[in-house]
Amino acid sequence: MEKRILVVDDEWNMRNLLRIYLEEEYDVIEAEDGVQALAFISSIHVDLIILDIMLPNMDGWKICKEIRKEKHTPILMLTARNELKDKIYGLDIGADDYLEKPFEPEELMARIKALLRRSIINEHYSENALMFGDQFIIIKTESRTVFVKGEKVDLTPKEYELLYLLANQPQRVFTRDLLLDVIWGMRDMRDLRTVDSHIKNIRIKVKELASTYNPIQTVWGVGYKFNPVDGSL
After folding, report:
1. Which residues contact 142 (CB under 8 A, 6 or more apart)?
2. Is the pLDDT of residue 201 over 50?
3. Do 103 and 153 have their domain in common?
């Protein structure tokens, strides 16, 4: 699912320019003043806000304060003001970063990616989780969810349990018999294809988000083990 970015600027030319830069990678929505911006934020999920300071009726600082009463959405202040005291004030009231106009599109994109990455990390650190490859794959234990490159992987309960068991002991090779015992409790009726089919499904679902990454390694003649992204384990 694409991340959604809200652009708040009263100048159509600037909103259009930002849309051109962003729309290939993100879902972009626009607001031309604080009233529109706050209405969007209260009614739909937004992953990041690009907020101009010089706006009519309600300036960017006031909007930032209002947002911070309810939301922790990353805010990138975008403005022509270049005084240090303005930057410090913006950061003090809750902005996450500050970019001056005019700007290079490469710097804008880099700052956006950094803010989104930081937001994902902060979200996952609030819950116990297994993380590998600089947060490339995150397995959350309380909500029983898995994220690859920041995107949720739609796993069934058994697929989640299987992946978690392997990732929780990443240096261990599990036989299919042991996986059947632990995950399914099968001791009398042994159908090893049950394990194989679930492993296959996990690989397919992860590959949809990371085409070159295989989360579960086959150890021929033995069984399966977790495959960390960086191969360090």
Report:
1. 127, 128
2. yes
3. no
